[in-house]
Amino acid sequence: MVTMDRFRPGAWRLWLAVVVTCALLRTLGQLLGAPFLGYEIPYLIITCSAPLMILAGVRLHRPARPGGWITLAVGQAAYAAGDVIFSFDVWSTGNMAEPTPGDMFYLSSYVLTGAAVLTFIRRRTPGWNLATAVDALVVALSSGLLTWVFLVEPVASDSTLPMAAKLTEASYPILDLMLLILAVRLVLGAGARTPALYLLFGYLGVMFAADTGYAVVGLLGGENTTEPFTGGLWVVSLGLIAACALHPSMRDFDTPSHTATPDATPARLTVLTCAVLMVPGLQFVLHTIGKDLNVPLASAACTVMFLLVMARMAGLVAAQRRAADTDGLTGISNRRHFEETLASECRRAARAGYGIGLLMIDIDHFKKINDTYGHPAGDRVLSEVARRLSSGNRAGLLLARYGGEEFIALIPHVGAGELPAIAERNRLAVAELPFAATDQTLITVTASVGAASAPGHLADPAELLRAADQALYAAKAAGRNRAVVAPTVHTPATAHG
């Protein structure tokens, strides 16, 4: 028996073959002087089929959250309605003056498509990603200035156009710019780099190029609908968005990403460089051809972009510093950062005279957890232990993952008499409540704790670590799930030069 599953892998390739054929018919038909319907029908086939192909992709691949795809299909249906109305007007009356009845559908299509893309972005990257938002804003400022100079301002200053036509024609480049910003935000954000992502980005990029070409041709010659290459680009863009939904990778397209956004890739830096250089380049070109650009406008754009890029670089340095100091699994400090902090804290304690405490915390029988429930369960336990130890401790405590299933805590400003209660509180934080090894399985996890302290003038990193490690060994030898406090360290720090 032949099932639909058999056709899933090749559906998007077959669709793209149809798109290429229709794009060629649309372009060559107009170039060769075919009747209007002769080259417009291939275009209408694709624009009317695109929303149906998106819905077919949802049915074929059944994404977990189809809301964004449904919104995208509705947006493309609105675009198809605008195309049908516009084509009928041109065929029946030859009237191409804006605004047309189809403009309402076109403009609503942009809004719906933007809402769908924004839904994908928010799902792929939960939370607010400030770094990528700044990058998109840099691109938006430079592109927005070009859009204003070449597309919006000429329309706004044209005294022959009625106000309704001005508002309609100015809306398209502004909405195109919105889609461009969302495209940059989508590609520069976190998430899997799947074929569906590149197909969607291709749709947004080609649509932006086609709309910009349409507007530029209209401003230069006033014959937008006679431009065959623009029509071919529209066919390709609509084909790409439908292919995105038909591709099997759409199923996991908006799966949330738990990885950090790539910050220093060559592609990202290239995009920022081009965006920043675009405005001074525009000033130079217009000066060369004898046209003056609004100097305050360009200067303000350059200043804001420079400040944004500087803020971005500062954020990049801070992010790299955090990454170097942080354990990737648990999100707490790593061993290198802990040892550096311990050494500097001991020096401060020696000068100021306050005591320092150290806890070594080791999860009991951790290998058994991995062997029984798998390494993903072990990772969940490690992350939850880190969370409990972080949330249940005093201010100023530095918690780190010291290695494997071992954690370590530095406690400044602590006396030897306080340490047993702190050590016991950390042991109970691990043992009191069960852990979710899997979504259906709860297990009991315990930890052994070794504690050591030293007065400030005797605080020495090596001695504190040695004493805490010996206390931890004693806790495990005594049966585990207990806290043992080592005698106060009395070895002078100078003895370990």
From TrEMBL:
Pfam family, one: GGDEF
Matching PROSITE patterns: GGDEF (PS50887)
InterPro entries referenced in this protein's UniProt entry, alphabetically: Diguanylate_Cyclase, GGDEF_dom, Nucleotide_cyclase, Rev_trsase/Diguanyl_cyclase
TM annotation in the entry: 43-60, 72-92, 104-121, 128-150, 170-188, 195-217, 229-248, 269-289, 295-314
SUPFAM superfamilies noted in UniProt: Nucleotide cyclase
Sequence ranges assigned to domain GGDEF in this UniProt record: 354-488
Lineage: superkingdom: Bacteria
Keywords of this entry: Membrane, Transmembrane, Transmembrane helix
Family annotation (PANTHER family): DIGUANYLATE CYCLASE DGCM-RELATED, REGULATORY COMPONENTS OF SENSORY TRANSDUCTION SYSTEM
Name under which the protein is recorded: GGDEF domain-containing protein
Taxonomic lineage: Bacteria, Bacillati, Actinomycetota, Actinomycetes, Micromonosporales
